[in-house]
Design goal:
- The complex is a heterodimer of chains A (110) and B (115).
- Chain A has 110 residues and is mainly beta.
- In chain A, 0% of the residues lie in helices and 58% in strands.
- Chain A has no helices and eleven strands.
- In chain A, the strands form two sheets. In chain A, strands 2, 4, 5, 9, 10 and 11 form a six-stranded mixed sheet that branches.
- Chain A is globular, with a radius of gyration of 13 Å.
- Chain B is built from no helices and eleven strands.
- Chain B is globular, with a radius of gyration of 13 Å.
- The chains are: A mainly beta (110), B mainly beta (115).
Amino acid sequence: RKEVEQDPGPFNVPEGATVAFNCTYSNSASQSFFWYRQDCRKEPKLLMSVYSSGNEDGRFTAQLNRASQYISLLIRDSKLSDSATYLCVVSRRGTYKYIFGTGTRLKVLA
Amino acid sequence: DTEVTQTPKHLVMGMTNKKSLKCEQHMGHRAMYWYKQKAKKPPELMFVYSYEKLSINESVPSRFSPECPNSSLLNLHLHALQPEDSALYLCASSQVAELGQETQYFGPGTRLLVL
């Protein structure tokens, strides 16, 4: 079993839809959680950090459930420009290792 | 400024060539990383430098040789690569104040093709 798992998708949704992605992690010592977005042939860019019970940034909401060991990303009012791969990243305190999930592809359709 | 720069953007090399990839950041970050990313896969960690010292080598073949000349620069020297080494090579940096809790910032990558 991979340490960080994501549904690879693709998720095809119409503009304006709400879409949610989940990411599960297996190591209970995991400390910090991030969502990155990666456009085709580009580098990953930080979308949100998730440090405690979750946080919101505009149309994006990230939640953390430590008991069940998963984080989620909710995108409201999807835009065409949201089409990308969303990478879940998990790290452990005191290490330099950031573990990437396989990524979830999102396509927002006009 | 949260910018990490990488040169070159693209590189084509033969299996007998020697080349180097360069990465630079001016954010005062003291941890720098090399990742390799194949198509439709997530980035895979190769090396981590902390305070200019090699902290992690993820069992990378010796044909890849990292170097950290100073706190702002990170190089990856390539020699006798194989076609399967063709990939996007990403550099990243982060603070080290709270290990594992700091945000990583990625450069645009070098797209490498080995013929």
